[in-house]
Every structure is written in structure tokens, then in C-alpha cells.
């Protein structure tokens, strides 16, 4: 079954574990994108920050981590991504949106 066949409210669908190469595709079909910062998958804090720097669809973007994986993880990757966003001069309001406000709104 394709997600469109399920007749879901697209604002309630999050495609997570995304990276910069698929974020636009996720947005184009109307879903929210979650950039999961996992250096072992080549999704680094720098890459996440660059997606935010583009300032596209920030209302439909979240930056998150995956510390439940049995693979090596870093529980501080989201704060590291925040640091990289600040280095790029991204406004605090935009940073707060993608790491706090959007996840809070989505997961309620």
C-alpha cells in the first residue's frame, strides 16, 4: 500500500531518518521530514545545519537523533547540530523551531 492510498492527513505523517538528499522529495509529497543525525550514516551535525540554513519548509522539518540503535550513537548530536547552526548564523528562532517547537507540536 502506498501512503497516499491510506488517505492520511499529510500534516500528521513524519518521514524520519531522512538526509539532505531526500528532504525535498518528502516535502514535495506533503509530509514532514525528520533529519536523524547519525554520523555512522553520514548524517552529521554539519549536514543537518546546512538543511536548516536553506530555510525551506522549516515548519515541516525536525532535527533529531537515534540513540536506540545498537550501532554507535552520540546522545549530544542535536546540541552539536545546534552549535553548527549557530556557526552558520541561523537565527535562534529557526533553530528553536526545528529542534523544539516542531517536534513538540507534532508529538504533542
Q: Runs with pLDDT <50, length 5+?
A: none
Mean pLDDT: 90
- What's the overall geometry? globular
CATH homolog superfamily = Metal-dependent hydrolases
Strand order of the largest sheet: 1-2-3
Helix content: 40-55%
Radius of gyration: 14 Å
Given the helix and strand composition, which structural class is it? alpha/beta
Identify the CATH class.
Alpha Beta
Report strand %.
5-15%
Q: Which CATH architecture is right?
A: Alpha-Beta Barrel
What is the H-and-E element order? EHEHEHH
Helical stretch count?
A: 4
Question: How many domains in all?
Answer: 1
Number of E strands:
3
Main sheet: strands, sense, barrel:
3 strands, parallel
CATH topology: TIM Barrel
Distance between the termini: 27 Å
Folded structure, characterized:
- The protein is of the alpha/beta class.
- It has four helices and three strands; from the N terminus they run E-H-E-H-E-H-H.
- The protein has a three-stranded parallel β-sheet.
- Helix 2 packs across helix 3 (77-87).
- The protein is globular and about 40 Å long.
- The mean pLDDT is 90.
Amino acid at each position: 500500500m502506498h501512503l497516499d492510498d491510506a488517505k492520511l492527513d499529510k500534516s500528521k505523517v513524519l518521514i524520519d531518518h531522512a538526509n539532505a538528499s531526500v528532504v525535498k522529495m518528502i516535502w514535495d509529497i506533503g509530509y514532514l521530514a525528520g533529519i536523524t543525525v547519525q554520523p555512522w550514516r553520514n548524517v552529521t551535525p554539519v549536514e543537518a545545519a546546512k538543511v536548516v540554513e536553506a530555510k525551506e519548509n522549516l515548519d515541516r522539518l525536525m532535527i533529531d537523533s537515534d540513540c536506540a540503535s545498537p550501532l554507535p550513537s552520540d546522545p549530544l548530536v542535536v546540541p552539536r547540530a545546534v552549535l553548527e547552526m549557530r556557526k552558520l548564523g541561523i537565527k535562534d528562532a529557526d533553530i528553536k523551531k526545528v529542534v523544539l517547537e516542531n517536534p513538540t507540536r507534532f508529538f504533542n
